[in-house]
């Protein structure tokens, strides 16, 4: 009985962590940073996640959702 209870609590905790919109938003920022490298302002994206409490979730495949975080990369 006890191991089942512990497993249930752990599964519920994982679901709660995954459902945190700020966490999802920041993870998406990190994914976009990996995809776009120096062209993506990851810190600015993460700051927006916190500021807007995860209400805007960046989607790396949706240009409208990441446009504010894209920058021109100068390589001099």
UniProtKB/TrEMBL annotation:
Q: Which InterPro entries match?
A: Eclosion
User: What Pfam families does the record point to?
Assistant: Eclosion (PF04736)
Organism phylogeny: Eukaryota, Metazoa, Ecdysozoa, Arthropoda, Hexapoda
**Species of origin:** Hypothenemus hampei (Coffee berry borer)
Q: Give the UniProt keywords, A-Z.
A: Signal
**What is the name attached to this protein's record?**
Eclosion hormone
Q: Which region is the signal sequence?
A: 1-19
């Amino acid at each position: 009985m006890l191991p089942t209870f512990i497993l249930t609590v752990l599964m519920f905790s994982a679901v709660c962590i995954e459902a945190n919109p700020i966490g999802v938003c920041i993870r998406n920022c990190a994914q976009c940073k990996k995809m776009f490298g120096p062209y993506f302002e990851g810190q600015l994206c993460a700051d927006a996640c916190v500021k807007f409490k995860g209400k805007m979730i960046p989607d790396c495949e949706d240009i409208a959702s990441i446009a504010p975080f894209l920058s021109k990369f100068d390589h001099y």
